[in-house]
Amino acid sequence: MRTTLWLILAVLAGTLTMMAFAPYRLYWITPLSLAMLAGILERDGRHAFWIGYAWGLSAYLCNFSWIYICLHDVAGMPAVLAGGLTVLLPAYLALYPGLAAWLAVRIGNRVQAGPSMRWLVLFPAAWTLTEWLRGWMLTGFPWGQVGYSQITESPLAGYDPVGGILLVTLAVAFSAGALSLLVHRGTWRRLIMLALLVALWCGGAQLKQTEWTTPVGKPISVALAQGNVPQSIKWDPLSFESTLSLYAQQVAYTRADLMILPETALPVFLDQLPGAYINMLSSLARRNGTELAVGIPLRKPKDPSAYLNAVVAWTSPGMPYYAKDHLVPFGEFVPLSWLTGWVYQLMNMPLAGFSRGGADQAPLVLAGQKIAFNVCYEDSFGEELIGPAAHSTMLANVSNLAWFGESAAASQHLQLAQARALETGRFMLRSTNTGMTAIIRPDGSVDAIAAPFTRQVLISYAQGRSGMTPYMRHGNWPVLLFAALMLFAPLAPRLGRRRAHLPRYRDQL
Question: Domain for residue 488, yes or no?
């Protein structure tokens, strides 16, 4: 009976996290939710995995409910099947909080750790390592990592350019551990916990004031197109002409140094576009003194049967391009197609077999800036962007989030992009089909944003930046090594005692 109560409380704690992420951004809820989880684990460690799993399942179901909208409302999948698949991803992701809870309790029991060791050392370390693990397992899905709830309003966001989102996650989990210990008896212990919290959060606030990169060159005017083409007609041949006309008009009436059109803005392979349209779009841009980048699918030059999700530098000689490298499983490629290919027979999802563009692609040079492009959810992977960012002066993302309807997905995606801008100390330009089209400053704040589900061109200014943040220099490894030491170092004395007894056992044999 008591275990059932703890599981219910864990579900409630996980549900609360929905309010911590975009669009609500009540960042203080996340450490409170994890503190509740730690308090439950303190009272019922025997069921640690299932308590952590219950927390994760409720948290991810609430935060990723937009999966149903994508599968049913947009892709046309039957409601029963769409509902089942909506639960599938959270059910998988919840394994990681379950593993974190189990590790913290199991290792704590092994070394007979006290509450401080268990919740200030083992729990934050286990949580951080398992969050990293789910960020790359099965190609990775880092959405919903607790660190993102702190971007950019929280003082803890200041740790992002130092150690990436994993360092922010570690700080959140540590804060949760300290909060959970405030209910323990002992005035001194409570004072110490409060002092640790104040130091951690004030340190983050101080780091937020630091400029890690420096301006280079003059600001440029930037125009970001938002076509607001409904997904239901985006690939419809009857709407093809109107889509081409829409973007031609937006280019014709826009004066800026740089203009970017969103992911697959032109819903046809580049080699299928009428040559007259290609020339017209180039002429319109050049007439206005604008350099143009366009999201459009391409066929691979050496393998026409393979195709790429690309951004083309339209007005540059030779039309160089960036092609998406980190593809969305079940969205842009079919893993284990012999087993899962049936899913696509129930969905209206064109071009679901993209090829990877390659990891070492040079930035596109546009309007005097070196721009590192990424497509759709590629900006979820911080460590993958730091290499391209080091060779660029700006970042740019093109996306089509019409798949997610009027859900929280677009706001969550914006929060991910804000983290990438903060980690690299560079402007992030976001051109999307339906929202959130925005210009994000190097400190992660939104400089300008277009109203979602409107047809417009967002125009503002962006400044090139140079230099490296600590995270760009070192990536995730310092945080991962530190977390691994926190988690496994307490086991070292126990292993040492075992080895010391081995000779005696050999003598007895």
Answer: no
Which DSSP symbol is given to 450?
Answer: P
Mean pLDDT of 116-129: 97
Q: Does the pLDDT value for residue 269 go beyond 80? A: yes
Q: How many CB atoms lie within 10 A of CB 302?
A: 6
Q: What pTM value is reported for the model?
A: 0.94
What integer pLDDT is reported at residue 351 of this predicted model?
60
Domain extent at residue 289:
214-472
505 confidence band (pLDDT: 50, 70, 90): very low
Hey, what are 393's tokens? Answer: 């002066």
Tokens 């149903």 correspond to what residue?
A: 68
Per residue in 370-415, pLDDT (tens digit) is 999 999 989 999 999 999 999 999 999 999 999 888 899 999 999 9
> Which among 160, 110, 33 has a CA at the least distance from the CA of 442?
160
- Are residues 177 and 260 located together in one domain of the fold? no
In angstroms, the CA 373 to CA 395 distance is 6
Is 383 noted as a catalytic residue in this protein? no
User: 194 and 266: one domain?
Assistant: no
- Among the listed residues 42, 131, 263, 423, the single catalytic one is 263
Active-site residue, from 208, 234, 324, 370: 324
Give the helix/strand (H/E) hosting 372.
Answer: strand 369-375
Catalytic residue among 42, 208, 234, 376: 376
Told to judge if 263 belongs to the known catalytic residues of this protein, a careful annotator would answer yes
Q: Which two tokens stand for residue 230?
A: 């409904």
Beta strands in 242-342 (DSSP E): 258-260, 291-300, 303-313, 321-323
- Please indicate whether residue 376 is annotated as part of the active site: yes
